[in-house]
Amino acid sequence: MAKTSGSKKKAEIALVGDVDDWEAEAIKQMLELPPGSEVVYYIDSAGGSVYGAVAVFTLMRQRRLRGTAVVLGECSSAALLLFAACEHRQVTRYSTLMFHRMRWQSEKRIIAEEAHLWARHFDELEKELDELQARLFGVAYEQVRTWTNGSFYVTGAQIAEAGLAELLAV
Per residue, what are the HEC states of the chain? Predict the structure, then answer.
């Protein structure tokens, strides 16, 4: 169950580990909350399944959950979609965020025709999600695109300097 604290009763959800590790639990916790709730997402994730991140993002938007993202350590790859979707973002100077274009990984054995269709789908999805993420960040749209296209590791201080998050003292 999502925990609440303080007089404002914000729910708290931990997004720790690969997206595959926290997707199901995060969705369950978000479904327990009334629509329109305020949620603090504590993030320490190197990313993982973009589909899992899209599922959590979609539920966040569908239920109109107002999010605050707090990067505890790392927020990279697919986890950046949730960070970007939050109204308020907080990082420390020690936070690390890795921006890159989507990567395809599959251990499934498929025939060449399926692989061709998947590659086309993947190309379209990658472009749409990169655009969505840059738009969600808004204020530093071109900077986010540059970081993504260049596969940059970005510090919390750099994220704060770009106006994308508040820098927390620790």
Answer: CCEEECCCCEEEEEEECCHHHHHHHHHHHHHHCCCCCEEEEEEEECCCCHHHHHHHHHHHHHCCCEEEEEEEEEECCCHHHHHHHCCEEEEECCCEEECCCCCCCCCCCCCHHHHHHHHHHHHHHHHHHHHHHHHHHCCCHHHHHHHHHHCCEEEHHHHHHCCCCEEECC
**Residue at token pair 């109204």:** 87
Provide the angle, in degrees to the nearest 10, between the axes of the packed helices 19-32 and 50-62.
10
Q: Which of 1-10, 44-53, 137-146 has the highest mean pLDDT?
A: 44-53
Asked if residue 69 lies in contact with residue 41, where contact means CB atoms within 8 angstroms, the answer is: yes
The structure tokens listed for 84 are 């970007």
Span 90-100, pLDDT tens digits = 999 999 999 98
